[in-house]
Request: fold
Amino acid sequence: MVRLRKHRALGFGACALASSLWGCGFFFGKIALAEMGFAHMVLYRFLFAMVVLAPLLITHRPHLELRHWGVLLVSSFLGVPLQFLIQFRGLSLTTVSHASLMVGTMPVLLAVGATSFAREQMDGVGWMTLVASTCGAALIALGGKSQAGTGQSSLTGDSLVVLSLVVALFWVLLNKQLIEEHSPIMVTAYGLFLGTIMLSIWVPLKYGFPPVSGISLSVWIALAASGVLCTATTTLLWNWGMTQVPASEAGVLLNIEPLMGSLLGVLVLKETLGPSAWAGGGLIVAAAVTLTSRKKPDKR
Reply:
């Protein structure tokens, strides 16, 4: 408990920085998608991430029991190939701003996951925020175009992003279980390493080898930034932050991600959001802030 209080401010700072960098992931991804398919973009993203994480594989050797290796393998599969291939397939069919706003449902999904799998209780206010967040996601998705195109959103793309968040929920819960007993740096490095191996096998078999020539410098920079900043750095920061502050309190910081992503989409990529998308985004953020920032009564 003393360690938790000592590093509380640093823990919140790490989670806030991680969420801010995560918010840039869709922006960099959209730049790369202009010149390559979503699967190849995801593979390059994690290969760049491993350039940073590779030394940690040597300095932080795993000392895991067999059952923990099983949890790590499942977590790696959910958190890397499954989540990201679904998520960036969705991004290829919708806009950065829409995809980012859909990510605002994640704090509420975490609350539901904690209630269902971690045996935490959610009161009436919690269930009200869940309904509000779900309505917000529906407003954003239904406000999209029926078919995706340049600068257009789509119901299919938005729905795939939400599906990826459901997958991410289980990854977060499994990761939380691991870092309670093991080094967050080791869990991050080996989790992403195993996931990258899975990607390196599946993507070439399913989609062919990724392109090497004919890729512009701006795309290589976007790929490197998404790997180093939005994958390796964010996961290290978030996993460490989760050892310093309660997930229920840090969850509000996840709202920085949809805010950052939607602003980049609107201001830099010149995307547009309709009235229903703005209303839906407001509902999602309000629900997440209400759920994660309110004080819970002490249990006696």
